[in-house]
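Objective 1b: paired records.
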Amino acid sequence: MSNITRRSFLQRGTAAAAALTIVPNVVLGKAHGHIAPTDKLNIAGIGIGGMGNANLKNMEKTENIVALCDIDWRYAKPVFDRHPQAKKYWDYRKMFDEMGSSIDAVLVATADHTHAIITADAMTLGKHVYTQKPLTHSIYEARLLTKLAEANPNVVTQMGNQGSSAEGTDLVTEWIQNGEIGEVTRVDCATNRPIWPQGLNTPEKVDKIPSTLNWDLFTGPAKMRPFNKTYHPWNWRGWWDYGTGALGDMACHILHQPFQALKLTYPTRVQASSTMLLQDCAPTAEHVRLIYPARDNMAKIAMPEVEIHWYDGGLLPDRPVGFPDGEDMMGMGGGITIFHGTKDTLVCGCYGQKPRLMSGRVPNAPKTVRRVANAMGGGHEQDWIAQIKAGSSRVPCKSDFRVAGPFTEMVDMGVLAVRLQTLNKELEWDGQNMKFTNIGANEEIRILKKDDFKIVDGDPKFNKIYTDPINAQAFAAEMIKHNYREGWKLVDMPR
């Protein structure tokens, strides 16, 4: 995109952020920003070939889809065909520049590494935003979107972890906070993902870029790499430049319940281990341990220090006492969460599905959490729409960025712990200032670039190729706050 177009986009964004009275264009001027349910929002979709397609199906039932943007027009074609009236774009910045005045709300469902910059730009323009999980690719990006949401309360936000709106998550929260299982000092979480290839050497082959794909725009703020078919579509999730592995995919569905129910904020200590860790690709299996400090006690339960354990790639926690013999721990949506309490053990599946106590007792806790109907079948998206239309009477969405931002930091911290595991120590984290406090100025790490193995004359030959020594502080800082490729820039952090 031209500098002129980019400049004009940013100028309009600054002006919008200053005003920030958010109502659809069709009802501008209505009192108090309230939107009648009969009025339709004008929604733009950015990244529409995968989950974006599913999200749009749940939005188009009631709203107008006026613009569609994707870097792969072959992958996006079914959505283009379903909405022939919507204007098509490659570059979201051009879309905002040309159609910003006619767009009320934005869906962002691109690869992980572009979530933050697109979402922040949309919020700066005063657009309501629904962004797929994980909300961001780095901790700094998550903190930025949290601050933007706090600074702009009229912008309605929602992260696409639909299980946060499901009743199972509500029940888990109510049971724990009612003291049904006592104090919780450990939680085990696991998924059967990844189901895409991980633990791979960096591709050496350069493939021809399809005419239907804009590789430069896909790369966005990340480092430019030669195109290879293993990166796109879908498999990008396993590559560090673009995705966050199984953590980013599934932890947003599985860790949300402990984050919410236990009122977690920032961890103080973290440590991880995994199968072979390569420079560019996520490992095939991981174990992450996050330590959260004691929080203020609630009316019916204390909130002591708690350990959160994450497992993926086939690694599993111990089966809790009382879990039925023969039952697959991954049988409930490809994930499990186990709350170990002083009185009982609570187990639920991915998205908080089918919560139960291992004692067999069925709690009768007060229903204190707002319910969202049909959360897993479109209710999560429709609640976002409903809160936009509610105006001055709106309530926060279940995964409002003021919650989803700090929660995403939990997920991104897991990725940090995995990538820093060769420091061979428990890392201490200053959440407020977003920095590790026990990585020395002169500490170095070497990262495996390539795992080369061949058979020569019947004998195995191993050749592991490592990077030169890398300053660990600098490496950690880059992962906490990415250095964007030239031409791409995040908006400033609100003060």
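Objective 1b, second protein:
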Amino acid sequence: MVRVLSGTGFLLIAPLCTGAHRAGTYPVRMRIATVNVNGIRAAARKGMVAWLEASAPDVLLLQEVRADADTAAALLPGYRSLVWPSRIRGRAGVGVAVREEKIALSEVVDGIRSGAVGDPLAKKGRSFPIGTGWAGQIGTVTVVGENLERTLLLNAVVCEEIPDLVDVDPEEDLAPWEREPDGPARTPAREPLGPVDCYTWQTRRVLLHGDDDGVTGLFLGNGDKATPQNRYLVEPMTAWRYSEPQSKKLKAPVYMPRKLPTDRAFWRGLSTLVAQLSPPITVKGAGEVTPYRSPGVVDFYQDLMYHEIVPASGLILLHAVGIEYGSNESTIAELVDDVLSLPAGLLGQKNERLLAVVRGAMEETEKVANALWVLARDLDRARGGSPDTGKDAGRHAAAAFYQVIDERFPRWLTSLDQEDPDRAHARWRGLLRSEALEQQEALASAVPDTAFAGRGEGKNRKDVGRALLFFRRALARALPLPQHNAPAEDAERTPA
């Protein structure tokens, strides 16, 4: 059997076998082809039918079909097909076709697996998908040492030293090969019991078939499904965020994995790595809650600093890896692979001053980005743009600003290990102000002369002058200039 994972404009496939375990037979070899036809009618005119007859794939995956289901079926003789046309006539669309004597179309489309013997969730010998594996639901953060040995030791957390992991029982937190075999059937009520259990979680069951010469086939079935709610109690390599909807649903505080975003740099999620950067928030019905929980490996490093096992100064290198899925979590859309160096002082006992500086710098950066967003939107409206084009202009302006800041903030952050925090903060404010004014100049110079006359009436009027005025005010609020003592007036000055 073949499970097809469908996305937008393309298909991914994973070869499986048909009923191998249940029937005691070996899997049947099959040929799978994926083709971007660039319009199935055009492909047929260029000899696609002859190619199908010669290559005879058992499963055919099609992209850019650009036709309805009936048209595609007529051009695929000897195959059963299903097409998902684009919502826009004549555009894109994907499809799948199978040779019916080899495999049923329904099995390809629905992602049905052969059910393992004894699986209580299997129906009529078949088992349905259970979603992504455990690692796909989280974003992992590791502490990087100077070599592999050091890295492994820094991430092998001692659970009893971490408040969130203190209840993990090492006698029960075992790898699959250290406990009784699970067998082919999944255990519906099973939950991860600790870090080791998480690292070795069996999302799939694999049974190999073979003879004296080696492996000849396999049975692949569903394994155990792990839910992400409150797994900070057993999982030490993930940052966690408070979820108000989940908390209301379960009537208890719930934290969900803070997945690593692909649309922003790693440093912008610094508050989730160092939870002290985010002060408690008040939630209706729940009172005061901690918005984020740091990864256990970060808390473990902090504990090692406290016991003087690692230096309390210098830099800590963090490595983040994550996945962003596409439609219905059926495809991998983006991968996250980023590093960030933190000054160890952020995790120190006397870190209030440093935390305040970093928190202030992050908040000010966000305010400046928002001010540029508004400026770009207002300039677009002044030139006659619509609300939609104004939003697009704002997003582009903010992205251009962060493109510069994403390179400079990590370098500034590392400088805090050697520089006075207040002096460094003043330097960062100066950099923000300089970059904001430079981007303001670029945005204002790009608008046509008609934008100076503007559009609209009264308070809704938008022109270049008003847009720049509002921007300067927002910038002054975000980055107030240092206050200098004015010279004292001469009290004995004689009036004219």
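The longest strand covers residues 332-343. The chain is about 35% helix and 20% strand.
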